[in-house]
Design a protein that fits this description.
single chain, alpha/beta, TIM Barrel, two-stranded antiparallel sheet, 39% helix, 15% strand, globular
């Protein structure tokens, strides 16, 4: 009986040593976000999946950019001085593709004062020019890098604010699905995943647009106002059970996965991952940024989410760092498994001798 239990334990240990997936959030932290250069770096670092965001231009081109406005990451205010709205911002949907092509992209800054959001990242005032890209260019970059390197990375496309785009009579999801179809990217086995914060839009993509692509449900706090979806419901057991009929993965704010005290210290795991796994869904929390953690605390955070919260992947600005931490953990687990297997073999041999 003891021998059987040890076999089971060894199997579980080997199974648990499989590392989570690493998703390069907006590419990497080391070059201006979402540029083709940043995406290429994430591919080279070994990110399993590269995450991007898309918005629509006035002439219905899918632009790879995180915000619906241009001010935090481009020089739009300098190039188009009189094109801001009454709130002072310049919106992607107000510009045609050829106008957007004329802009330079820089590291993210606060639009009101121009200070860099992450001061130690690529200098926002650098003279190196980066540019906005289209979804078509990103797809071709991924497919061609996969072919050239023989390393199969995937693309996670966030459809930004479908409700916002619908106010301009634009169905951004339809355009995304049609664009992917033009590259014959239509099946769940293709290296493409779609996600959005508007969870009802995922149901539209699956049922009305008849897409077979894998879908992830992004989740945040209701007060953020990211969409009209009720995240309080969708992160409940019933909500997760309902989602399991439509999506394959959940991408929640990391605070949904663990419980923190008032000082920001993790005190326990929530039921989120347990419920997700119970209904066959994977969990990929966001966003893990090394800039926000000092010393070994980032390593400890990753270890907790891996081993205690048992997430299936990390959405991170630092795919290289998390890959290194996970691989280091895999080696340690594998070494322990080897020792355990040797002990198990010796124990089984002695057990049979005693029986004889």
């Amino acid at each position: 009986m003891l021998s059987f239990l040890l076999v089971l334990f060894a199997f579980e240990l080997c199974h648990g040593s499989q590392r989570p997936l690493v998703i390069g959030h907006r590419g990497t932290a080391y070059l201006p976000e979402l540029t083709l250069a940043s995406q290429s770096m994430a591919h080279a670092y070994g990110a399993d999946i590269i995450e991007i965001d898309v918005c629509l231009s006035r002439d219905n081109h899918l632009i790879v950019i995180h915000d619906i406005n241009l001010d935090g990451v481009t020089n739009v205010a300098d190039v188009f001085k009189n094109r801001s709205r009454s709130d002072g911002f310049h919106y992607v949907i107000d510009f045609d593709l050829h106008e957007l092509r004329s802009l330079n992209v820089h590291e993210r800054v606060r639009p009101l004062n121009g200070t860099q959001v992450f001061p130690l990242r690529f200098p926002s005032k650098s003279n190196v020019h980066f540019h906005l890209s289209t979804l078509n260019e990103t797809i071709e970059l991924l497919l061609n890098l996969n072919r050239a390197t023989g390393r199969q990375r995937q693309l996670l496309i966030e459809i930004k604010k479908p409700e916002y785009h619908s106010k301009y009579n634009k169905s951004i999801s339809s355009i995304v699905v049609a664009t992917l179809k033009s590259y014959n990217l239509t099946q769940s086995t293709d290296p493409i995943i779609l996600q959005t914060f508007h969870i009802e839009e995922l149901m539209n993509i699956r049922k009305n647009l008849s897409s077979q692509l894998r879908l992830f449900a992004l989740m945040t706090w209701n007060y953020v106002g990211e969409s009209s979806s009720d995240y309080d419901f969708y992160r409940s057991e019933q909500g997760i059970r309902n989602l399991s009929k439509v999506v394959q993965g959940l991408a929640p704010d990391h605070q949904f996965v663990v419980n923190y005290d008032g000082n920001g210290t993790i005190i326990s795991t929530s039921n989120f991952t347990k419920w997700a796994h119970q209904y066959g869904l994977s969990v990929y929390p966001y966003t893990f940024r090394k800039d926000l953690f000092l010393g070994s605390s980032f390593e400890q955070l990753v270890e907790y989410f891996w081993h205690e919260a048992q997430v299936d992947g990390f959405i991170t600005d630092n795919p290289d760092v998390i890959l290194e931490l996970l691989q280091r953990g895999q080696i340690s687990a594998s070494s322990y498994t080897i020792v355990l297997n040797i002990f198990l073999s010796m124990f089984t041999f002695l057990f049979h001798i005693i029986r004889i």
